[in-house]
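Consider this record:
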Amino acid sequence: MDLTSIVISVALAAAMLFLLVRLPLAILGNLRAGFRFRQGLAQTLDQLRLSRMLGHLGIDRTQYLHEQSSLSVRKHMTRCDGCTDKQQCDEVLASDAPADAASLGFCANIDDLTQISQR
């Protein structure tokens, strides 16, 4: 073996070692960042009526956050935050009897949430 082959082999071995160490660290960092993002999403969701509406429709909040894309969750949260029927929503959510989809027609998210609850 000549010197060039040895240098290239050492360089490749060093690169492989770097990747072997760095790749799992990058994956763990991404998992932690995703977890923090989902926690922030959950905290924001808890501040909206949407969280109570999920429970009212029998949708598990944790499963909702896990299965729905963050884009869909953000869209639902934006619709809920911008809703003009908050008084009516509070009245429906305060009642103990589960409301059917027809009586929740005022909700901007009812179509999406009904589809989610049927799955």
